[in-house]
Amino acid sequence: QVELVESGGGLVQAGGSLRFSCTASGRDFNSNTMAWFRQAPGKEREYVAGISFTAGTAYYADSAKDRFTISKDDAKNSVFLQMNGLKPEDTGVYYCAASYGYPSLLTVQKVRSWGQGTQVTVSS
To answer: pLDDT of 43-72, one tens digit each?
Structure first.
């Protein structure tokens, strides 16, 4: 199976920035889309941003598009999420995800592999 390894979480004050990275490996890696989801306490897991390694297209949730930037490194099968202007409501566990298809059509149910999850806590 595909292994997704995340790094970059932590504690930050409101208005601060964090940068996540996720690297995919494994013999079964054939996903063309990688993405980021998050799950706040007591909430459902939600789609934050995704990017296609083949088409180069990206998707952002409305809550993310003005503050977050997703990028990729094709040679290393890696995806990054730069988060600026963080708010307390951004607090949660962030998961890297791998799938196949258009980033705009990705859902939780379509994800093929998940990262281990990384905690983000934004204080007021």
So the answer is: 999 999 999 988 889 999 999 999 999 999
